[in-house]
Amino acid sequence: MASPAAPLVNPAKSFIKTLAESPNLTSIPSTYTYSTAPLTEPVVSGSEESIPIIDFSLLTSSSPDQRSQTIHDLGKACQDWGFFMVTNHGIPESMMKGMIEGMEDFFNLREEEKKEFQGKHVLDPVRCGTSFNASVEQVFFWRDFLKVFVHPEFHFPNKPLGFSELSHEYCKRVREVYGELLRGISKSLGLEESYIQNRLNMEDGFQILIGNLYPPCPQPELAMGMPPHSDHGFLTLLIENQTGGLQIQHNHKWVNVKAIPNSFLVNTGDQLEILTNGKYKSNVHRATVNNKATRISIALPNGPSLEDIVGPAPELTDKETNPPRYMPMKYKDYLELQQGNRLDGKACLDHVKILK
């Protein structure tokens, strides 16, 4: 039974921010208890030296040698980690800071205002809520979110003032960075630089903006901001307010990610694993919480067109030595499958794996 200091809250009708700001909150409701024992899995500190860093200015350099080396490093990061940081990407620090501040202002709106954007279906273009999918979960996560479809059509809440216009420009700039990363990844696979864009109509590629709020939690060792999962698209580019909490899985251990200021945190997604027939595996990651500070992050998962069918690239498979390991599936169906169920590692990807 929850203690008197842990009020019962229906996540489908309220936000975690409201619960976290309850007076004298000293424990969490049982419905938010992700683990009955403190989370004690081995976690290692990720230094700026160990997690791969891709200098974007070298990826776009006019020097063939510099570019070739960076493409090699990018491919190695995708294969060994499924995660890397991107520096010197050209997006102004003031714009990135403005995005974090705008997202904070959105979550600071009155609850009634945020509920205007709740949405009803996982493919609604604007959706605000809490946890991940409160309608199917038995344990809820210490997180509020805003999910907005921003490309090929741009949708956005009309509050707070000016945030929509800033986000429109920001998402456009991120797509430019994403496009260059995809070109480098194509080249690292031994394909033409434009292979992925041409094969999957990336001009109409699907992009979502996801804002996450993780307020202080009185029992962070029992709660989870987001459970271990992989992302559904090709690449997700994320920024945060320098409050740690992101952990990535590497060599069967959890690694704390310490972001370089003004960098993008980039992880590979399920569609890239499918396209490369498993050579570049999607990264499993999670969000932990703390009892001192609010973490805000903004993630931009980027994928193919919703109507594209993604399967292993024929150029990367061989019937005898490397047969296709994944069944082709329309991206819209894959997205709906993942967003409409509980998050559970790579459970969604297992649906399209070809069992041998």
UniProtKB/TrEMBL annotation:
The Swiss-Prot or TrEMBL record annotates one GO molecular function as: metal ion binding
Q: Which family does it belong to?
A: Belongs to the iron/ascorbate-dependent oxidoreductase family.
Q: Does the keyword Metal-binding feature in the UniProt annotation?
A: yes
SUPFAM superfamilies given in the database record: Clavaminate synthase-like
Check the record and name the PANTHER family matching this protein: OXOGLUTARATE/IRON-DEPENDENT DIOXYGENASE (PTHR47991)
Q: Which UniProt keywords apply?
A: Dioxygenase, Iron, Metal-binding, Oxidoreductase
What protein name applies here? Isopenicillin N synthase-like, Fe(2+) 2OG dioxygenase domain
Which segments constitute the Fe2OG dioxygenase domain? Answer: 204-304
A Pfam family of the record is DIOX_N
